[in-house]
Design brief:
The protein is an alpha+beta fold. The chain has two domains: 80 residues, 2-Layer Sandwich (Dna Ligase, domain 1), CATH 3.30.1490; 115 residues, ATP-grasp fold, B domain (D-amino Acid Aminotransferase, Chain A, domain 1), CATH 3.30.470.20. The protein is built from six helices and twelve strands. The strands form three sheets. Strands 7, 8, 9, 10, 11 and 12 form a six-stranded antiparallel sheet that branches. A four-stranded antiparallel sheet has the order 1-6-2-3, with helices on one face. The model has no long low-confidence stretch (mean pLDDT 96). It binds adenosine-5'-diphosphate and magnesium ion. The site of adenosine-5'-diphosphate has 18 residues, from strand 2, strand 7 and strand 10. The site of magnesium ion has 3 residues, from loops.
């Protein structure tokens, strides 16, 4: 089962992973309340479909006023979004998500998958976040770092140290990263997930780590 970004972010938030506050929008009438609840802008409005590549397809936009937010909502609700991952027919847009715009210094990539060969949870990390990770793997494989976790031992401090180093995170950022890994690993194993991808994992201008996008695929047999 594939979750929407906003559902994945709810699970991450509950697991103690830093994600922006956000509001779900299903109709134009929801826009004003969402903006009011989130406080000062600018905000980012994001189409919720089960596919990546939304940004490049016009499904993610910075909005600076309630008017801009309403016109984005009018433009997308009830339409279909076509991204490089959807096929030509695209996917219907029934839900939007509004969150404060984060001031981004760096975009990193982090995901957890189950390695089919060994059944181990494997972290994939890259300092080339925000891009198509398959393309990064093809053109600059040296920027992709993988690390498996032994199920009996679980997540160890050296996992976080290694990946933090690979991502150029030190000091307090490395500490925050270790906390984030713990939360991600905990929710991934508890939910019996097959994939959890945070792309981008943003380093903000003020130096914080925030999960700005989340893709969560649960095992279809596991309850949600
Ligand atoms: N809350 C946010 N604040 C600022 N920029 C954002 C925010 N959410 C997404 N972005 C930017 O938009 C890009 C695309 O958004 P993302 O959620 O990753 O969608 P997709 O992967 O489907 O294109 C991100 O790489 C990031 O640069
Ligand atoms: Mg993304």
């Amino acid at each position: 089962m594939n979750l929407h970004e906003y559902q994945a972010k709810t699970l991450l938030r509950e697991a103690g992973v830093a994600v922006p506050d956000g509001r779900v929008i299903r109709a134009i009438e929801d826009v004003d309340g969402a903006i009011e609840a989130l406080g000062e802008g600018p905000w980012v409005m994001k189409v919720q479909v089960h596919a990546g590549g939304r940004g490049k397809a016009g499904g993610v936009r910075v909005v600076r006023s309630a008017d801009e937010a309403r016109s984005f909502a009018e433009g997308w609700l009830g339409r279909r979004l076509v991204t490089i991952q959807t096929g030509a027919a695209g996917l219907p847009v029934e839900t939007l998500y509004l969150e404060p715009a984060t001031r981004i210094a760096r975009e990193l990539y982090l995901s957890l998958i189950i390695d089919r060969a060994t059944s181990k949870v494997t972290f994939i990390a890259s300092d080339a976040g925000g891009m198509d990770i398959e393309e990064v793997a093809e053109t600059t494989p040296g920027r992709i770092h993988a690390l498996s976790v032994h199920p009996a031992a679980g997540l160890m401090p050296y996992h976080a140290r290694k990946l933090a180093f690979a991502l150029g995170l030190a000091g307090n950022q490395a500490k925050a990263f270790a906390q984030m890994l713990k939360g991600l690993y905990e929710v991934f194993t508890r939910k019996d997930a097959s994939m959890l991808e945070v792309n981008p994992l943003a380093v903000t201008e003020s130096g914080e780590l925030v999960a700005l996008d989340a893709k969560f695929v649960l095992d279809s047999n596991a309850g949600y």
